[in-house]
Amino acid sequence: MAQPPAYARFRRPLELGLSALEAMQHNDGSFPLYQRSERTAWRACGPLFSTLSVLLSAGSLMRESARLRAIDFIYRNRRRDGLWEFDPSFGIPPDADDTACALTVAARHDRARVKEGDSVLLRSFWRADGGPFQTWRGDRSWSGRDLDDAVVNCNVVLALQALGAPASAQETKAVVDLIRASEAGCRYYCSPTTIAYAARRAGLSLEALPASLTAPPSSQGFLPTAQWLSTCRRWDEDAIERVLAAQMADGRWPIEAWFTGAGTPKPVWGSPAISTALCLEVLSEAIASSEAPAPKTD
């Protein structure tokens, strides 16, 4: 973001948001996740992915004790085969997204958890006929190409980089090709903006992406707006105000649908903890950009 004015006004929302985020942490270290459909109200479900998402966005802002409690929860949920699954109560296979996000969190915040073969394990999701990385480990009903997801693939690239085993040229090309084919959106995330957000986080060039993915989101929701701000790192007063205006009196940002799945009626998932973490990421980036020394001129 280019030198935003009056950055000091972000400090209080950031402090309130951080306090609210840690207040949402459960005793077991996890952060809440909720599911609903157009026929049902929000209901609590397995919190692994929300915990991963919070740490990826705001882990560096949290107190170490809270962060390590969350990581302990994540690793208590690691399977014997080294993978992670979205929610054991669903009876679905382990997946690349949870596994990649968990390994990234460990590599960033608790390196002692990383094992020598973790990058090889993650690469086992690669399609042998030239990629990209498939989402699920399972039989044919789970391994179809229609379940390949651009955000999931970006998260795998992110994890490989964090593990010190960066994606190869072939892997990167396959992921970028999938992103370009996902201009209208991807399989598992509600907003196309999430694709660009995940690509930027993974270190992929935004210039290689369709312009529609990096354009300001058409939705007036604060969550796509926050992701767009983190993606493009540009100052936009209206967008910042949309994010700030959504903050609640107790410091949280409200639940807003973030990812989705298959079924009738179609389910969506979200969490005030995820919403809060993504918005805190924006505010911290804005403050950091404002405090950065101006470039020297001749």
What does this structure look like?
This protein has one domain: Alpha/alpha barrel (Glycosyltransferase), CATH 1.50.10. The protein contains 13 helices and 4 strands. The protein has helices at 11-23, 48-58, 64-76, 96-109, 118-123, 140-143, 150-162, 169-180, 193-201, 211-214, 222-232, 237-245, 272-291; strands at residues 33-36, 43-45, 259-260, 268-270. The longest helix has 20 residues, at 272-291. It starts with 10 loop residues before the first helix and ends in a 7-residue tail after the last helix. The relative contact order is 0.16. Residues 292-298 have low confidence and may be disordered.
Topology:
Blueprint: H1 11-23, E1 33-36, E2 43-45, H2 48-58, H3 64-76, H4 96-109, H5 118-123, H6 140-143, H7 150-162, H8 169-180, H9 193-201, H10 211-214, H11 222-232, H12 237-245, E3 259-260, E4 268-270, H13 272-291
Antiparallel strand pairs: 1-2, 1-4, 3-4
Helix pairs in contact: 1-13, 2-3, 2-4, 2-13, 3-4, 4-7, 7-8, 7-9, 9-11, 11-12, 11-13
Key structural traits:
disordered C terminus, Glycosyltransferase, mainly alpha, globular
CATH topology: Glycosyltransferase
Distance between the first and last residues' Cα: 23 Å
**In CATH, what is the class?**
Mainly Alpha
Radius of gyration: 19 Å
Binned strand content: under 5%
Mean pLDDT: 92
Write down how many β-strands occur, each being a DSSP E stretch of 2 or more residues.
4
What is the number of helices?
A: 13
Largest sheet: 4 strands, antiparallel
